[in-house]
Amino acid sequence: MRKDEGAATTSAELRAHNLARLLRAVHDNAGQLTRAELTRQLSLARGTATVLVRELAGRELIEELSSPAGARAGVTVPRGRGRPTGVPSAHPRGPVALAIDLRDDSFTVAAFELTGRSAVLDRHERQASSGTGMLADVAARLAIRRREFGDRVVGIGVAVPSPVRGGTMVQPTLPDWQGIDVTGLLGATSDEESGVANGCPVLAGNDATLAGLAEARRGVLRGFSVALHLHVATGIGGVLLAGGQPVTGAHGSAGEFGHMPLAGGHEPCRCGSSGCWELDAGARGLLRAAGLGEQGDRMLAAEEVIAAAATDPGCGQALAKVAGALGRGIGALVNAQDPEVIGLSGLAAEVYQASPDAVRTAYLAALMRFRRDAPPALLPSTLGDLGALTGASELVFDAFLTPRGLAAWRVPAQKTA
Q1: Ordered alpha helix ranges (H), 150-233
Q2: Residue 6: is it exposed, middle or buried by C-beta count within 10 angstroms (0-12/13-18/19+)?
Q3: Would you say the pTM of this structure is higher than 0.85?
Q4: DSSP code of residue 174
Q5: Which residues contact 103 (CB under 8 A, 6 or more apart)?
Q6: Which H or E run includes 318?
């Protein structure tokens, strides 16, 4: 998802390139590295690093702290010898990415600083009678938050429950979202309502893909060269990650694992196929197995089934059925993709943690024989509900942490005596 803007050919371009590299390193390491450690990591001259840090601080992109502001999950930093230098971290008036986790029955808005520190700002259940009405509600909340943060907002990232092509939802969970350019709609509406003159980029991605990206950057998949991530909600999605980067396919819509016949079913699916894995291992599958309908918040209802499984026989049987279907599907994907490790988020993590033996038994049984001695580990998410939001924020910072992105950052007004 990162784009190389090409090699620097002038001293001004080299300076801009190194400013972006340094700020990227602060972001990637969650503000945990000292200036000296960043200097070594980026192979910069000490004097050059000092000048770059001073410029970034003067532009209110970073501030130097005496110690790290607080370790982030998955970021382990070795310390060298000698007197430590300052720790470049997020500036209190620095860039902010607004992130949205859009679901068919609710949405969440959060703000992320440069180093990944976040705050959930809004959580709303769906109130509008239509999907387009719900998007209008999202835009209204965005407008409020854009007024709140002003020109600190460098972009808006949106995680959507659909494959995405060029900002457009191509097979969403709500029929009236079909073909909607969510980036254009939210960008135009939030700009108009917030009164922000120049606007800012709006970037969208599939929620499961972004959850995997987040785990590779900030969670349990950090540091693995090839990893598979599965996100289970109403349906099932995921992504294969190579070197921490999502493999998104020729059209940006890879990872629709829930629409593969991995559990042996034959029922027709809303996607147009039949026997899809999500019919057996997603929230719908769990609710059907428990004899429940699909009205209201399906994720909440599915979580209630899991919570009751230990005391309610019907819920226990439903959990066991879904755990087996989940494990069989994971085994099939491992045979096909050959990852080092599998990350699990959403209901996948909850089902695994509630019934690990059932998931693992089905998983191992589905593996080819030569894989069973050292099967890839199943790792529940460390980011929880922040996964898709964190991934959406990474879309924004990937676009911002470039020479072009930094050039658009406002210069703070000079103080007068």
Answers
A1: 182-194, 207-218
A2: exposed
A3: yes
A4: S
A5: 161, 173, 207, 233, 234, 299
A6: helix 313-337
Q: What does the alpha-carbon distance between residue 114 and residue 105 come to, in Å, rounded to a whole number? A: 30
Q: Where are the alpha helices (DSSP H) in 125-204?
A: 131-149, 182-194
Sequence letter at residue 386 = L
Token pair of 379, please? Answer: 């790792």
Q: 76 or 225: which carries more pLDDT confidence?
A: 225
Q: What is the mean pLDDT of residues 149-170?
A: 93
Instruction: Assess contact for 141 and 122: CB atoms under 8 A.
Output: yes
The pLDDT of residue 209 is 95
CB 25 within 8 A of CB 37: no
Query: Do residues 265 and 289 touch, judged by C-beta distance below 8 A?
Result: no
pLDDT reading at 399 higher than 60: yes
- Percentage of the chain beyond pLDDT 90 is 72
Within 10 A of 145 (CB to CB), how many other CB atoms are there? 20
Let me know: does 186 contact 202? Beta carbons within 8 Å: yes
72 pLDDT band (50/70/90 cuts)?
Answer: very low
In the three-class reduction of DSSP (H, G, I as helix; E, B as strand; rest coil), residue 329 is classed as helix
Separation CA 395–CA 407 (nearest Å):
18
The one-letter code for the residue type at 219 is: G
